Amino acid sequence: MATGQPAPPPGRTIRIFLLDDHEVVRRGLRDLLSEEPDIEIVGEAGSADEALEKIMALRPDVAVLDARLQDGSGIEVCRQVRSNDAGIACLILTSFDDEDALFTAIMAGAAGYVLKQIRGAALVDAVRRVAAGQSLLDPEVTPRVLYRLRQGPAEDERLAGLTDQERRILALIAEGLTNRQIANRMYLAEKTVKNYVSSMLSKLGLESRTQAAVFATKLGT
Rounded to an integer, what distance in angstroms lies between the CA atom of residue 110 and that of residue 82? Predict the structure, then answer.
């Protein structure tokens, strides 16, 4: 049994759902976590749509979600799950040390973000911690989180009405990215990005992406 974070009281079982589009990875996670007497795997999925449907039906304590999927992302699944049931903790598991993904996960309401290189005992601890209501980040990425938090966003009256997501999308538009490329970069559905762009243009009083790109470039966004 893994050591570290104390297990829940006797009789309290942590119900876990697994999302990963690689069957071998899911099987490895299931075998690892199932060895713990206080953990029960209640479901799993290999796609975002399947996961969302099953998670909302099963209502697990913790959803362990792969960040990158063939049909979307675990981060977007996390966002939708948390908007429907804030009692479900989401732990993002990824192979990529990606700062943008990290902050997108935090904004989506993820309780934790860990790299797949994590040791088995540490992953079990992470599951127990988020199940207990704690938040955690992989130690390798924590310093960057603190740095970004200390910096704070640059304020401009023309940007005041935009959300953080809309500001980030504005910056990516200025870089010349398409909606699909932005969706891939931010782990969002392309339709979600399109909605953000429409909202952003409306708030800024602009009519096109080209105008938005020029606007952002002048601001140095």
Answer: 8
Rounded to the nearest 10 degrees, the angle between the axes of helix 164-174 and helix 209-219 is 100
CB 88 within 8 A of CB 100: no
Do 96 and 117 form a contact (C-beta atoms < 8 A)?
no
Check: CB of residue 166 under 8 Å from CB of residue 173. no
Cα dihedral value 68, 74, 77, 82, nearest 10? -150
What is the phi/psi pair of residue 20, to 5°? -160, 135
138-193 residue pLDDT tens: 555 556 655 554 555 445 567 778 888 898 899 888 878 888 889 988 888 989 99
